[in-house]
């Protein structure tokens, strides 16, 4: 512990000394930022002086008020009622008169603070009696004051120097030199040596606070802001990734622990506290404190307000500052406050308790506190994004060091861990989304909750607003709440890792999904908003078909159905595909607030069927069927050719079935996965060959241009071009002079039902079908082939 001695002395200073001076009567205050007073580890940047009755007070934490501990030095005022406040800034080398008066001071000085006092006659006061908190008094036989120049280059000045003041900061007590005292007021054993330098050893633990009567109670705070954890004993931990971690698990409250889950925002290599989880182990209860003030009990969202609700023994409340959860057991109380960015965990009780987790008093590494259940796969992966050239770390550090200056100096919490958290983040991450003020607010709120100290006017001094940024704004798991434009309204923006795969491909979402009869495309609304695209004004070719937003994921789906509602889809047919194409678009508006002035959105997406493409799948007739899956982009269907012995197609030809010559065989061509309202199956031609190849040496036609061979009266065709299946019949035969297998080949195609007559007209010599898919004899034929043994 540092001690101070208040001394009045005469000193010769060179003429070149810089001085700031002001006169006061009765009371006054002065900014001493250029020469701050370090007082028990705390720096003060203002001094307050006042006469009260016969007492003169010098205070550092506000004006003197009897009974209020404002870190004051009290002394007899004598006949003085006015004086001067002055700051002199000049190098004071070792060996100076001051060093001779105070031999314990070993280092050179850079400045001094001066308080010369006068009476109403402007005369110097000859005798002062200094009282230190009314416990001891010291007498000085004379007081030096400013006089005329003594030498050409010097002046004789009256100087009040603050160096090692022999009382602790918190209570302002003084001890006799060369003594050791056990002081119940500060719960410490104090040793004050001959030189007036005091050291104190606290009887309280690092998580305890002295009550002022010799007893210590548990009163400790853990702050988690950004990726930094400032634990209960002031240590700083940095979370390097986007996983879940145990923040605290107190021994005094069984089966209770607080977890924190971290996520990235605009950069992949900087993580932030994203949610807090209260876990009640024995009951399997989890309470999620999330961004925007949303609270979930397991899977149910809770509606909270300022009136506390008790949920499984936990008091929950919500106001404009965030959500607070409080739980008590074994005379210990844990309060958790979360505003969507920072969580403050305040623990109180009659005595200290052991606490595990990143906030605790154990010496475990950060990785040892990871919780796999709340850690997404790959969350440990480290990234190294390109440095932001707009960030000036020197400017950032200067900003973060505001915590060392008024009005933050009224707080008795060490600001250094908060400054570390601030500089680590802002030297790498841009000062957007309210982040510039986040660390200042975390410090001010910690002062208020732990020590009941209000940091006055810090917002106005730093231009930090009081609005609850992103309060009640709920974003999806792949989004975070932030400013689209600096200082603008909050939006749900894409997290960097989620967005990277789409940005690299210059897309707004997933590839087109083609169902049995439908086509859909899913876009990320946060990607649309990045380009100032309002999803609600987008539509398909049919303006009545608009995108639907999922309230949980904020993904926007556009879809159409080829059978029920095409939403204006355009059907295109060529030799290989039947394609349904639609377009996500908007009109070309110029109204302010729309996508972009004179901008137009145009995004095509489509699904298609492939024309059947099966060739040379020859099998023995006894195998009874050929099944082939047709993959058409993302629209799939099966095409089957199966043989039967009866017209009802109930008796399939099985292995071992004896087929006689001139026996009627029924062959069914059937699709599975096509919508009959959309497309129809047309059997164009079928023929038999003596070889597996469709171009055999011998050929006999069965179906010609969709119609039975008029030269063979045994051939019959049913349902051709009317449904997604059809069948035909013929009598078995063999080629003359051949005793081997006979192979059956069929050429089939799909026909778009809309606007076309797909069924062939078999009353004329040539087909009159008006299919959008016009074919010619020189096209590469598409076959499905069967064989039987003759």
Automatic annotation (TrEMBL):
PROSITE patterns in the cross-refs: VWFD (PS51233), ZP_2 (PS51034)
A Pfam family this chain is assigned to: C8
Entry-linked Gene3D superfamilies: Zona pellucida, ZP-C domain, Zona pellucida, ZP-N domain
Ranges annotated as spanning the membrane: none
UniProt keywords, alphabetically: Disulfide bond, Signal
Record has Acetylation as a keyword: no
N-terminal signal peptide: 1-19
Domain VWFD: start-end pairs: 220-401
Highest taxon of the lineage: Eukaryota
Keyword Transferase: no
Record domain ZP: where: 513-769
PANTHER family tied to this protein: ALPHA-TECTORIN-LIKE-RELATED, ENDOGLIN/TGF-BETA RECEPTOR TYPE III
Protein name, entry field: ZP domain-containing protein
Gene for this chain: LOC127365288
């Amino acid at each position: 512990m540092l001690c101070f001695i208040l001394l009045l002395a005469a000193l010769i200073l060179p003429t070149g000394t810089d001085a700031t001076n002001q006169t006061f009567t009765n009371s006054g205050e002065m900014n001493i930022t250029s020469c701050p007073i370090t007082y028990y580890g705390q720096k003060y940047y203002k001094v307050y002086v006042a006469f009260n009755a016969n007492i003169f007070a010098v205070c550092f934490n506000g004006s003197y008020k009897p009974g209020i501990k404002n870190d004051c030095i009290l002394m007899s005022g004598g006949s003085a009622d006015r004086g001067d406040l002055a700051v002199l800034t000049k190098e004071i080398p070792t060996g100076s008169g001051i060093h001779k008066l105070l031999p314990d001071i070993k280092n050179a000085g850079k400045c001094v603070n001066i308080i010369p006092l006068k009476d109403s006659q402007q005369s110097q006061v000859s005798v002062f009696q200094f009282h230190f908190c009314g416990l001891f008094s010291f007498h000085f036989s004379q007081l030096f004051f400013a006089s005329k120049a003594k030498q050409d280059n010097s002046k004789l000045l009256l100087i009040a120097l603050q160096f090692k003041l022999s009382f602790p900061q918190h209570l302002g007590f003084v001890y006799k030199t060369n003594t050791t005292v056990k002081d119940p007021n500060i719960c410490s054993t104090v040793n004050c040596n001959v030189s007036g330098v005091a050291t104190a050893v606290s009887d309280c633990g690092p998580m305890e606070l002295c009550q002022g009567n010799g007893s210590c109670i548990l009163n400790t705070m853990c702050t988690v802001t950004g990726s930094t954890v400032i634990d209960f004993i002031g240590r700083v931990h940095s979370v390097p990734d986007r996983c879940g971690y145990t923040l605290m698990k107190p021994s005094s409250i069984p089966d209770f622990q607080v977890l924190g889950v971290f996520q990235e925002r605009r950069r992949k290599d900087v993580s932030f506290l994203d949610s807090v989880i209260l876990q009640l182990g024995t009951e399997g209860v989890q309470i999620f404190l999330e961004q925007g003030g949303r609270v979930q009990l397991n899977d149910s969202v809770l509606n909270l307000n300022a009136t506390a609700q008790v949920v499984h023994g936990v008091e929950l409340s919500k106001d404009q500052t965030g959500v607070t959860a409080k739980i008590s057991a074994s005379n210990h109380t844990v309060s958790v406050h979360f505003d969507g960015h920072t969580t403050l965990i305040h623990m109180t009780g009659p005595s200290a308790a052991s606490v595990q987790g990143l906030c605790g008093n154990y010496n475990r590494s950060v990785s040892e506190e990871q919780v796999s259940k709340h850690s997404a796969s790959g969350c440990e992966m480290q990234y190294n994004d390109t440095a932001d050239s707009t960030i000036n770390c020197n400017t950032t550090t200067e900003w973060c060091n505001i915590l060392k200056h008024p009005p933050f100096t009224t707080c008795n919490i060490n600001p250094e861990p908060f400054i570390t958290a601030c500089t680590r983040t802002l030297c790498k991450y841009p000062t957007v989304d309210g982040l510039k003020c986040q660390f200042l607010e975390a410090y001010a709120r910690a002062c208020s909750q732990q020590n009941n100290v209000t940091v006055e006017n810090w917002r106005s001094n730093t231009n930090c607003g009081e609005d609850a940024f992103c309060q009640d704004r709920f974003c999806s798991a792949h989004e975070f709440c932030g400013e689209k434009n600096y200082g603008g309204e909050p939006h749900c923006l894409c997290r960097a890792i989620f967005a990277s795969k789409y940005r690299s491909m210059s897309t707004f979402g997933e590839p087109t999904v083609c169902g049995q009869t439908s086509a859909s495309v899913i876009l990320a609304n946060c990607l649309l908003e990045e380009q100032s695209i309002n999803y609600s004004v987008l539509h398909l070719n049919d303006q009545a078909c608009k995108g639907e937003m999922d309230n949980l994921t904020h993904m926007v789906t556009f879809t159409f159905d080829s059978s029920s509602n095409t939403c204006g889809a355009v059907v295109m047919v060529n030799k290989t595909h039947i394609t349904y194409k639609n377009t996500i678009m908007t009109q070309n508006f110029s109204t302010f607030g729309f996508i972009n002035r004179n901008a137009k959105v145009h995004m095509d997406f489509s699904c298609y069927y492939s024309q059947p493409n099966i060739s040379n799948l020859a099998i023995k007739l006894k195998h009874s069927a050929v099944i082939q899956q047709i993959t058409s982009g993302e629209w799939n269907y099966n095409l089957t050719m199966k043989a039967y012995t009866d017209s009802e197609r109930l008796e399939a030809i099985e292995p071992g079935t004896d087929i006689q010559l001139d026996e009627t065989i029924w062959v069914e061509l059937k699709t599975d996965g096509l919508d009959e309202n959309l497309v129809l199956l047309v059997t164009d031609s079928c023929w038999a060959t003596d070889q597996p190849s469709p171009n055999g040496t011998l050929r006999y036609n069965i179906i010609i241009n969709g119609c039975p061979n008029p030269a063979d009266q045994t051939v019959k065709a049913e349902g051709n071009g009317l449904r997604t299946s059809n069948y035909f019949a013929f009598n078995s035969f063999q080629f003359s002079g051949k005793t081997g297998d006979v192979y059956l080949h069929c050429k089939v195609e799909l026909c778009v039902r809309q606007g076309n007559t797909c069924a062939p007209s078999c009353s004329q010599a040539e087909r009159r079908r008006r299919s959008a898919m016009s074919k010619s004899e020189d096209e590469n034929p598409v076959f499905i082939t069967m064989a039987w043994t003759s």
